[in-house]
Amino acid sequence: MLNDPSPLDRAFAALSDPVRRGMLARLSLGPASVSELAKPLPISLPAVMQHLRALETSGLVASQKKGRVRTVRLEGRALSEAESWLSRRRQEWEARLDRFEDHLSEIK
Amino acid sequence: MLNDPSPLDRAFAALSDPVRRGMLARLSLGPASVSELAKPLPISLPAVMQHLRALETSGLVASQKKGRVRTVRLEGRALSEAESWLSRRRQEWEARLDRFEDHLSEIK
DNA sequence: AGTAAAGTTAAGCCTTTGCTTAACTATATT
DNA sequence: AATATAGTTAAGCAAAGGCTTAACTTTACT
């Protein structure tokens, strides 16, 4: 990922870490503070911050600070875009399989 | 990713690279040889091999060698599993939004 | 005012990733 | 048999990733 990764690059990279996927799973149930996200994790707070930054620069998550607590929420948009990429590839792949089966039945 | 990444970890990691996503896009249209995959890419063959290995150990792709040409094909299964993970998260997220809107209309 | 709570930043360390070139193996072609 | 084709392995390097501890800032509580 040498030169300026695209949003999709970042989103999939963010998704590749189980800690971050865990955070997303938590956030899919509703917003949470940084410490709420950190609580179940066996890593230091600064490590959590870094994961959070990965999620945020990928667009999968957004946050705002009020007083001393930062509230993080899931961003459905980026999630959908990653999903769509996969969905398109799967659809092309299935379409090709269908054509292949048609071909088989023709020569039968 | 210190300890033995899960298949899902590997799949998303594989998807995070635009070169590999390009290969998958090509393969979604049908199988291809290593050199066919390499042709449009501005990188060396060994580099392509490494990308291929990332795709293969993630389960997104499988290959077999016949004579001197290795034919690579997409594996729909791994693709679907990544897609499903995202889909579940999006569904939970949407369900929560719906409950939230219901709540709003109740107090109105 | 003094202390606790919630984040944040910086520095350093080790591993993993993505790439290269060079050298090599195994099939096809002529 | 000689040469070309298709892929593979190995070594090495620079950058990115994931973690830590230490030090600091900004609110909130007593």
Quick structural summary:
The structure is a homodimer of 108-residue chains. Chain A is of the alpha+beta class and 108 residues long. Helices cover 64% and strands 13% of the residues of chain A.
Verbal overview:
The first copy, chain A, is of the alpha+beta class and 108 residues long. Helices cover 64% and strands 13% of the residues of chain A. The first copy, chain A, has 5 helices and 3 strands, in the order ααβααββα. Chain A has helices at residues 7-15, 18-27, 34-38, 45-57, 76-107, and strands spanning 32-33, 61-66, 69-74. Chain A has a 3-stranded antiparallel β-sheet with strand order 1-3-2. In chain A, a hairpin with a 2-residue loop joins strand 2 (61-66) and strand 3 (69-74). In chain A, helix 1 (7-15) runs antiparallel to helix 4 and helix 1 (7-15) packs across helix 5 (76-107). The longest helix of chain A has 32 residues, at 76-107. The relative contact order of chain A is 0.14. The model of chain A has no long low-confidence stretch (mean pLDDT 95). At the A-B interface, helix 1, helix 2 and helix 5 of A face helix 1, helix 2 and helix 5 of B. Chain A binds a DNA duplex (30 and 30 nucleotides) through helix 4.
